[in-house]
Amino acid sequence: MNLDFSPEDQAFRAEIRAWMQAHVPAPSGPSLGIPTHKETQLAWERCLGQKGWLAYQGPPEYGGPGWTATQRYIFDTERALAGAPGSSPFGLMMLG
Question: pTM here?
Answer without folding.
Answer: 0.82
